[in-house]
């Protein structure tokens, strides 16, 4: 960086190392410098995405969503930016927007097991157990043995029946 401060990748990898070291605020600053000196959209989208990840980890959801949105504007097929944006939206309790982003991930990459699983979580939360089961099952078709999808599919089958069982037991 000292010998060539305009070299974007030096800033990018330095930011990555700072983040891995737990120095997330410093990493955000370094990704910002990388963005300032970036000369192409590929480098910009990667730096935006990585900075967005850190913002999301710090629960700065608005900043994270802004960076993921900017990365998507540079590459409308950037699956991982949609997925990370959906996670940030979900954490910010913006379930409908998160659902739309998970659906976009699935549209772009139908074999993305995590997107199917996470969309299933949103369906379950909304009480649409049949849609949750469908998404969990699809995740398991794609990735057999996906533990979280197995457990959540089991819960989605059982949860609607619990009130009936209580009525039968209590009479």
List keywords for this structure.
single chain, 171 residues, 10 helices, elongated
Task: Give average pLDDT, whole number.
Answer: 93
Query: What is the helix/strand order?
Result: HHHHHHHHHH
Could you tell me how far the N terminus lies from the C terminus, measured between alpha carbons in angstroms? 74 Å
Helix content: over 70%
Structural write-up:
The chain is mostly helical and 171 residues long. Helices cover 78% and strands 0% of the residues. It is built from ten helices and no strands. The protein has helices at 8-20, 24-37, 41-57, 61-74, 79-91, 95-108, 113-125, 129-142, 147-158, 162-170. Helix 5 (79-91) packs antiparallel against helix 6. The longest helix is centred in the first third of the chain and has 17 residues, at 41-57. The radius of gyration is 20 Å and the shape is elongated. The termini are far apart.
List the helices and strands and how they pair.
Layout: H1 8-20, H2 24-37, H3 41-57, H4 61-74, H5 79-91, H6 95-108, H7 113-125, H8 129-142, H9 147-158, H10 162-170
Helix pairs in contact: 1-2, 1-3, 2-3, 3-4, 3-5, 4-5, 5-6, 6-7, 7-8, 7-9, 8-9
In short:
The chain has helices at 8-20, 24-37, 41-57, 61-74, 79-91, 95-108, 113-125, 129-142, 147-158, 162-170. With 171 residues, the chain is mostly helical. The longest helix has 17 residues, at 41-57.
